[in-house]
């Protein structure tokens, strides 16, 4: 069985650190947590993880980032990795979220600030929990 990883993408380092800290409190210790500060870097990290034989069920990505939005990242990732699922973090309104969620591989959106229990519930469908 391949090792499992999760990738968190956000251009805001403080937000990224908070996300990593929070998910590390409930994901099994066997799950590797990787980070990227842009969509482009996220695609590079995914390629490295795949080369190292990791399974990546879900990526958590911020929506608003310079260079590549979370939706653009999701589309690019879907083109390369058809089974990859994306959770978007956003400060957008409910109407915008409905449009974002209509994208094929975006499984959920979380409004900033997100609820820890909601994040845990979503991730528990894909990852072993403590």
Tell me what you see in this structure.
Strand 3 (58-62), helix 3 (70-80) and strand 4 (85-90) form a beta-alpha-beta unit. The model has no long low-confidence stretch (mean pLDDT 89). The chain has one domain (5-123): Response regulator (Rossmann fold), CATH 3.40.50.2300. It has five helices and five strands. With 130 residues, the chain is α/β, with parallel strands linked by helices. It has a five-stranded parallel β-sheet, with helices on both faces. The protein is globular.
Provide a brief overview of the structure.
This protein is α/β, with parallel strands linked by helices and 130 residues long. Helices cover 40% and strands 21% of the residues.
SSE topology:
Elements: E1 5-9, H1 13-24, E2 32-36, H2 39-51, E3 58-62, H3 70-80, E4 85-90, H4 94-101, E5 106-111, H5 116-123
